[in-house]
């Protein structure tokens, strides 16, 4: 496919998404209907689509319309390639005709306008830099399974298969600089030497301190990335999730990593725990580069409901904490209402003492994440 034909395909897929179809099914359905597209074409089209979803507001303004064509025209104007892409050539999207319009501040930063005051209050002087960082694609990070390999050994194994990495400030972290699409077929991945995990997510685990030998509950385990990281450091991990289907891949992942992780539907029956990690449901505002649709789907009502869920999880966790145990509260959010404000309320209402807290921002390359450690007074 020509570059222009790829843009035409992206326009078609984006129109489906803007009409309500989820991104992954829209991409899959397009691929099934266009078998001639090679893997390189599909990867390029996917990148165009997700770049456009991250820049949905600013590119729609630059392209003059909230349509697939408007988004890709905005991209082409920003990249200076309109005359090369929007032509009468076969399979090209046709000549440019729609004028741009002036973007608002929220549109220029690709943020929901209703959330701007909360984001500005939460981020302070770092607001502009964080907002601009969130407009770009997130780097790919790997967590080295220290139970199976050193970081240097894992990096060397990856390099032998054309995957280049750089060590980062978290002792388990490698940033992938070349060959990211080869990871899941690599021996290092298949043998459990590495797992895909964001830098800030790894930093959350590092902030928990030594965990070897501790009885740990991952109360909101999801896919189990943090449970696996804790097990690799020697913790005795039990994983739970309100929706057990989210943990469906945890067993195979644990086998590949050589980790032992128990799962339970009734964690209260196994209490008390020395460490309880509550990586709670949240706005996902720190990970909008990876899930741009989450940004546009968030509403004031959904955020308010999420805050209630977070408080309920903290209430539940406290009752399962051993004397002297630590309750860790984590979100992939950059909003203070989900982070510091929730921790302060928990300390006041649940008889907890704040030990420390950390906010990780996308300026480091990783997602926005927050973690606080508390124990009973």
Please provide a written account of the structure.
There is one protein chain. Helix 1 crosses helix 2, helix 1 crosses helix 3 and helix 1 crosses helix 5. The chain is built from 17 helices and eleven strands. The chain starts with a helix and ends with a strand. 42% of the residues lie in helices and 17% in strands. It has three domains: 101 residues, no CATH class; 57 residues, Alpha-Beta Plaits (2-Layer Sandwich), CATH 3.30.70; 169 residues, Vaccinia Virus protein VP39 (Rossmann fold, 3-Layer(aba) Sandwich), CATH 3.40.50.150. The strands form two sheets. It has a seven-stranded mixed beta sheet, sandwiched between helices. A four-stranded antiparallel beta sheet has the order 2-3-1-4. Strand 6, helix 14 and strand 7 form a beta-alpha-beta unit. The protein has 377 residues and is α/β, with parallel strands linked by helices.
């Amino acid at each position: 496919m020509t570059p222009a034909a790829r843009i035409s395909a992206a326009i078609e897929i984006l129109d489906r998404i803007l009409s309500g179809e989820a991104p992954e099914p829209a991409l899959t359905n397009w691929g099934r209907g266009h078998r001639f597209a090679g893997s390189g074409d599909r990867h390029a089209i996917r990148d165009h689509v997700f770049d456009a979803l991250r820049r949905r507001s600013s590119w729609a303004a630059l392209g003059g319309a909230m349509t697939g064509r408007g988004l890709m025209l905005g991209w082409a104007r920003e990249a200076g390639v309109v005359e090369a892409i929007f032509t009468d050539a076969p399979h090209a999207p046709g000549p440019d005709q729609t004028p741009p319009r002036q973007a608002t501040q929220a549109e220029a930063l690709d943020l929901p306008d209703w959330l701007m005051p909360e984001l500005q209050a939460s981020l302070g002087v770092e607001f502009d830099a964080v907002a601009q960082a969130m407009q770009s694609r997130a780097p790919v990070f790997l967590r080295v399974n220290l139970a199976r390999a050193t970081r240097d050994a894992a990096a060397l194994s990856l390099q032998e298969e054309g995957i280049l990495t750089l060590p980062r400030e978290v002792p388990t972290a490698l940033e992938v600089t070349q060959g990211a699409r080869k990871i899941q077929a690599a021996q290092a991945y298949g043998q459990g030497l590495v797992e895909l995990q964001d830098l800030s997510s790894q930093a959350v685990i590092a902030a928990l301190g030594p965990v070897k030998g501790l009885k740990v509950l991952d109360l909101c385990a999801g896919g189990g990335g943090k449970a696996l990281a804790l097990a690799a450091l020697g913790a005795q991990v039990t994983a739970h999730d309100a929706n057990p289907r989210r943990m469906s891949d945890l067993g195979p992942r644990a086998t590949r990593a050589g980790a032992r992780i128990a799962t339970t539907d009734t964690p209260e029956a196994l209490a008390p725990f020395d460490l309880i990690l509550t990586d709670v449901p949240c706005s996902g505002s720190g990970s909008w580069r990876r899930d741009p649709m989450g940004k546009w789907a968030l509403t004031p009502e959904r955020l308010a409901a999420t805050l209630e869920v977070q408080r309920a999880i903290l209430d539940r966790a406290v009752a399962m904490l051993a004397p002297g145990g630590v309750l860790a509260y984590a979100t992939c959010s950059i909003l203070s209402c989900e982070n510091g404000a929730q921790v302060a309320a928990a300390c006041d209402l649940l008889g907890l003492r704040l030990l420390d807290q950390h906010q990780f921002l996308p300026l480091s390359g990783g997602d926005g994440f927050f973690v606080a450690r508390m124990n009973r007074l």
